[in-house]
Write a structure and sequence with these properties.
This protein is of the alpha/beta class. 39% of the residues lie in helices and 12% in strands.
Length: 314
Amino acid sequence: MSSLSGQYRDGFCRTTHRAAEATPNQPMPEHQPAPPDSDPAAPAVCPRCGAPVPPLPPELPEQAERCLGERVCRQLGLYPIPAHLRLSVVIPAYNEQDTLEEIVRRVRAVPIPKEIILVDDGSTDGTPDVLARMEGHEDLRILRHQRNRGKGAALRTAFREVTGDIVIIQDADLEYDPQQYPLLIQPIVEGVADVVYGSRFLTVSPHRVLYYWHRVANRMLTTLSNMFTDLNLTDVETCYKVFRREVIETIGPTLRQNGFGIDPELTAKLSRRQYRVYELGISYFGRTYREGKKIGLRDALQVFWCILRYWKWD
């Protein structure tokens, strides 16, 4: 199985790299791992194999549309992205020393201008040492909490600092793939959405099979949230939530939750203000508790309470 998946990954990467070549005589880049402490100004690298990826020529979306048709290109996320567009990628982190450098590398590999705002939420492992090595890059801002306050508190701290046109929440683990940013921001770029949720359950993309009761609990909480907000989401607890910056500037100052209750709080306030919310299927590479997963029963109870709490009260 490992050999087969490796062949598939290499083939996928070679196809992607060929599509990105700007000149017909440009040689294919060799598949060599990217250096662990790469310069953010260096060319983007493939997050699957580490090979350098030439920048996409600006005419590629038009060429692809002529070959594949508009419908197929839109489903693949091949569409013109305005040159002035800038992302703010918000990353809350707590005890993620093993994945921090890799997730930042993957975020940087997405060929869209961006700022990365990383909040260390009082980590007690080697995370502060990893962050100290990462400081000094213009595209990365590191904020710190002196004690662990929760995911919601980390997001609220980061939201106050965003300057990009579109804000994306990205977990510090490797469960969510930043290469899906172009798909996630597409409804906002095209002017039809104010907010986009990336659903782990509305997808044909890879999805690791893990805990049955987690899925049951997620469906129950999402259904309860939908009943009170009159939305029809499939995954209220997803990490991938994408906003126009103006939405964060309006809602951010009203947010109160420090933990995972930030998800139903955000959803209720989006619904109350009648923002246009879209949902897209995403891939999900979940991890086990042994691998570092943190959410538990206490968090689920907090989400349940917040669904009720923010039904009527802002």
